[in-house]
Design goal:
Largest sheet: 4 strands, mixed
Radius of gyration: 21 Å
Strand order of the largest sheet: 1-2-3-6
Number of helices: 9
Order of helices and strands: HHHHHHEEEHEEHEH
Helix content: 40-55%
Structural class: alpha+beta
Number of strands: 6
Strand content: 5-15%
């Protein structure tokens, strides 16, 4: 029988402590712990943050790790290693073999817009300050209008760029970058979510709980700033983009803002 290493024991002890605290805090708040997977707002206190972490540990074990037989530290490290591999060449080859070639000026323009948007998205990776991001920009056509680089649980880092050459506003939501972002990503239970289809009828479905709550927080806290930026820059389009956590949140935020704005633009 394999004996646990000190690191494995530490991880297990920390997880157990989180679970015990979450159960105690849930009873103290007179709310069943099992219902805390329905979070709709970011945590406001350290107790709430630890309770969220308790739910992450509980859900990760109950709905994923125990079913897959993944519990050892080397299993988790192997998953982390595989997830960090660059498979862009393999993906490109699969698309080349199985995809459909599209041509035309409209597609070329759309692909150019995507390329520019992803460049802005990549500019946030690894950046610790807004000065580091600004240093990557060409000041002749790119400016930062809004920024928040101090993420919290369910509150990601983001930057609003203005590109005068493309006449676009790019609202970039950063992907998983910190422990707080990781907790958001791991709050992965499914929650009911709906959007409005092209015909005006509701489309019912489910969404990643952490991404959905994050998108709702962004809609609540940045909508006025985004609307003001659009008003100050007539003729510009707003494009919401991101990577990883940021990409999932960007899709949901776009849906929410379209619904709140009463249109599909």
């Amino acid at each position: 029988t394999e004996r646990p290493t000190p690191t494995m024991a530490s991880v297990a002890a920390a997880s157990a402590a989180v679970v015990v605290f979450g159960a105690w805090y849930g009873r103290k708040c007179a709310a069943p712990v099992g219902q805390f997977s329905d979070f709709t707002e970011p945590p406001k206190t350290w107790g709430d943050a630890l309770l969220r972490l308790h739910e992450v540990v509980r859900i990760s074990w109950a709905e994923a790790l125990s079913k897959l037989g993944i519990w050892r530290l080397d299993h988790l490290l192997a998953i982390r290693h595989l997830s960090s591999l660059d498979l862009s060449a393999e993906i490109a080859e699969t698309v080349r073999k199985n995809g459909t070639l599209v041509e035309g000026e409209a597609w070329a323009a759309q692909l150019e817009l995507i390329n520019v948007a992803m460049w802005y998205s990549r500019s946030l990776r690894g950046a610790r300050s807004i000065q580091q991001i600004a240093a990557k920009l060409d000041p002749s056509h790119a400016q930062i209008l809004l920024s928040q680089l101090r993420p919290a649980i369910l509150q990601p880092a983001y930057v609003l760029f203005r590109d005068t050459a493309a006449k676009e506003l790019f609202f970039v939501i950063r992907g998983t970058h910190s422990v707080r972002d990781t907790v958001t990503s791991l709050t992965a239970n499914s929650r009911p979510h709906h959007t409005i289809g092209p015909d005006g009828n509701p489309v019912l479905g489910h969404a990643h709980s952490g991404f959905l709550t994050t998108a709702r927080w962004l809609a609540k806290n940045t909508r006025d700033d985004l609307a003001r930026a659009m008003a100050d820059n007539p003729g510009y389009r707003l494009t919401i983009v991101g990577h990883s956590l940021g990409a999932g949140t960007a899709v949901l935020l776009t849906q929410i803002l379209r619904q709140q704005g009463g249109g599909g633009g």
